[in-house]
Write a structure and sequence with these properties.
Among the domains are: 157 residues, no CATH class; 75 residues, no CATH class. The chain is built from 16 helices and ten strands. The protein starts with 6 loop residues before the first helix and ends with a helix. It has 355 residues and is an alpha+beta fold. The strands form four sheets. Strands 1-2-7-4 form a four-stranded antiparallel beta sheet, with helices on both faces. A two-stranded parallel sheet has the order 3-10. Strands 5-6 form a two-stranded antiparallel ribbon. A hairpin with a 5-residue loop joins β5 and β6.
């Protein structure tokens, strides 16, 4: 840790960090301690229930996720930052969900890969700190390591964890990314805010697959985002009809949340919609070969899905679409696809279309 920092200078540093964060495009910045005992209890219970499904990485690092100093030795504080991502000028989400010939892609991934944007800005923030205090111990994270980012952000006063398990802010809803800087500086922490979900259960009621099994508890094995993004293999038959036309992620619990009436569109140019994927035609997407998929998703978080699972997801959406000769022809054209995973979902979709 950098020596000779008084309580007064540390408090002034926090104020400066928040100002620098705003200059770098973050809407809010806060500081938290590293005591996550209560959240660790919830994490271990969630893992014990098997709610993480096939996401083995959730359990692989043990309690490093809830004990920052075990992940990064000497850490005593965490700087949390948030950046709004709701893309401006994008098609209205419900209008896309109501049109089964279109594909719905979660709003967070319509622009540039947030990992790159957030990590670069957080690194610049760390550089600003170092320019003032000298060399210090730190590490930057953006959904890239075993970090309880929502718990840390809540303790830093950036919002509260809602019943859908997302972080909520009264003035900004939940359409924002989170990132962290683990530091060895004993910065004065911010105060958490109170929760304001009240008796509202709109997110539980709207979930197409009832993945929010209880307030604050999401069973990933039922979640459409898990099935369309994280799951490597076959999407369970029981959940395919409920997926509808959602081909990458699901935003329903955020769309219905009353607090998102106050959400702001992203000021960050990198989060503007690319390649008109806010309301894309399913048949056109299904016709992409792998090279076109890679070209169209360059710089996007969608690319990590891979072309095979991209076709898997779209096949399910086409199976849920109204019967159409054009849809049937497109599916039949993929019956000889080299991937057994793709063929399985195409056959299911064809049975739905011709049944």
């Amino acid at each position: 840790m950098t020596p000779n920092l008084t309580a007064e200078s540390l408090a002034a540093l926090v104020t400066a960090i928040k100002d620098w964060g705003n200059e770098l495009g973050f809407q809010r910045v806060g500081v938290s301690g590293i005591d996550l005992v209560q959240h660790e209890t919830w994490l271990l219970a969630w893992l014990a229930a098997g709610f993480h499904g096939e996401m083995a990485y959730m359990a692989r690092h043990g309690v490093k996720r809830s004990r920052p100093a075990e992940l990064v030795p000497e850490t005593v504080r965490v700087i949390s930052a948030r950046m709004d991502y709701l893309p401006p000028m994008a098609a209205e989400p419900w209008s896309v969900l109501r049109r089964p010939e279109l594909g719905y892609i979660s709003r967070y991934t319509l622009g540039r890969d947030y990992h790159k944007v957030m990590r670069q800005r957080l690194q610049r923030l760390a550089d600003r700190i170092a320019a003032v205090v000298g060399p210090f111990g730190y590490r930057v994270f953006t959904d890239s390591a075993p970090v309880l980012e929502k718990a840390l952000a809540a303790q830093a006063g950036l919002g509260w964890i809602g019943k859908h398990s997302n972080l909520l802010d009264r003035s900004a809803g939940s359409w924002f990314f989170l990132g962290e800087i683990y530091v060895d500086l004993p910065l004065p922490p911010d105060e958490p805010v109170t929760a304001h979900c009240g008796r509202c259960v709109a997110c539980l009621d709207i979930c197409p697959t009832q993945a929010i099994v209880a307030p604050y508890q999401v069973d990933a094995r039922r979640c459409i985002s898990y099935h369309t993004i994280e799951l490597q293999g076959s999407i369970p038959l029981a959940f395919r009809p409920a997926i509808g036309n959602r081909i990458y992620g699901c935003d329903d619990c955020q769309l219905v949340c009353p607090w998102n009436r106050f959400a702001q569109v992203a000021a960050e140019a990198d989060f503007r919609t690319r390649h008109q994927l806010d309301a894309p035609d399913l048949l056109k997407l299904f016709a992409w070969d792998e090279s076109e998929f890679l070209r169209r998703t360059e710089g996007s978080a969608i690319r990590r899905l891979g072309h095979e699972r991209w076709l898997r997801n779209i096949a399910v959406a086409l199976g849920n679409a109204p019967q159409s000769p054009a849809v049937i022809a497109a599916l039949q054209a993929r019956l000889a696809h080299p991937s057994a995973l793709v063929r399985e979902h195409v056959i299911w979709a064809l049975e739905r279309q011709t049944g």
